[in-house]
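Hypothesis: this fold can be encoded by more than one sequence.
Test: take the structure tokens below, design a sequence, compare later.
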């Protein structure tokens, strides 16, 4: 029921394809990832062990995208 509601609430098919629903303890999730609030978009690049390799907050920018792509290529 919850998943159906989430699908209905995200009408853009492309956005829906890139969206996942997590059933987690939000307080613990935010604490471990050092997330202070929910007002801004936060993008993280993590290692499998949870180490944060890269973080950005706020709107998309070409500079942020290039920085992330560069780091991903270097890590591979």
């Amino acid at each position: 029921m919850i998943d159906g509601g989430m699908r209905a609430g995200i009408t853009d098919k492309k956005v829906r394809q890139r969206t996942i629903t997590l059933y987690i303890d939000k307080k613990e999730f935010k604490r471990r990832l050092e997330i202070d609030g929910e007002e801004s978009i936060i993008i993280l690049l993590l290692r499998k062990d949870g180490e944060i390799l890269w973080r950005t907050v706020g709107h998309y920018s070409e500079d942020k995208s290039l920085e992330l792509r560069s780091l991903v290529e270097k890590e591979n």
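The chain has a mean pLDDT of 89. The chain has one domain: 2-75.
Hypothesis status: open.
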